[in-house]
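Why do we care about 3D structure at all? Because function follows from shape, and shape follows, mostly, from sequence. That is the central idea of this module. The next example makes it concrete: a single protein chain, its amino acid sequence, and then its structure expressed as tokens.
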Amino acid sequence: MICGYDLARAALRNTTELSTINTLDPLVEPSSRSKDVLATYGFAPQRVLVNTDGEQHRRRRRQLTPPLSEAAVRRAAPMAHRVVDGYIDKFQARGSAELVGELLWGAAADIGLAVAGVPEDRIAEARECAVVTADFWWGRPTEDEQIQVAHRMGRWWQLAGELVAELRRRPGAGWIPHAIEVAREDRSLDEAVLQTMMMSGLVAAHETTMNAAANALLLLLERPAVWEALREDPTLTPRAVEECLRLGASVMCWRRRAAAPLTLGGQSIEAGEDVLIVLDSANRDERRFCDPDEFDLDRRDAHRHLSFGSGEHVCAGAALARMEIALVIDSLATRLPGLSLGRAPRYRANASFRGPIRLDVRWHP
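And the structure:
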């Protein structure tokens, strides 16, 4: 277990000795019944960017990530703004809402699907297949819970295949259409890999962003003076987003597996041993951040956090996540005067993914 900032950053960047091969392995071995359920859907995911190492990872990252660049995200911002405003329109006049279920879940899914290139007339269908997989991989689900999630994952797997096939027939803009074009030259990007990209890409863009936005809102609304400052001066929002990401990361820790013997912080690690990199601890290391447990809107080095990782495996969707979080903050601050927290939030029992199950708020309608 690696907790300090310098060691965590070094471990994240050491892709030679610390492999990503175990990143998506479930903490609890899935039951035979849940495996049988997945098999009935032909569920056969391939390795994608997050759990691919070496030159293959570097080549695919160069090939596949241009649609997620900062320039591409800026072009997507008006679409994202319309999506967020559309959800707020439904409850603005009411005076109270549960933001996870009424805004963040749907908006993050819709924006992620649009950026992936899913045709507008298929987004609602695909959103219904979106699943919360964090508990499957990082929690301790019961066998019945595993089976429920397995059915939803299987349906999403099949729909992902349908969407890839449709995008071959009617190409457009987006991450998956771009990958389909790359695959014409790179035969290693076969149909199963593209199907996995469609499925796992939404999980990455949806679940983590939803939780990060919820964590940010919670941190800010717990500090009314900070929220009022953002309402009066939206130019402060990017700075607030970085401090929220540092203190309220949606992914608390990440895994690696030693590909060779190595020593970190004086500790010997044998080949094949698993390593847990605790990002939330690194982000609060007093040797790296002054008064690390305090929310400081004027903190100048907040962007040095490790919430998106570091090195060649840094989150490919970081620019998109930052844009969505800032957009949610600005839209709510502008449209819901007097916004404040309702009941105390509850969290899932999860070893890595962190975000409130619900976020109740009220305002002056």
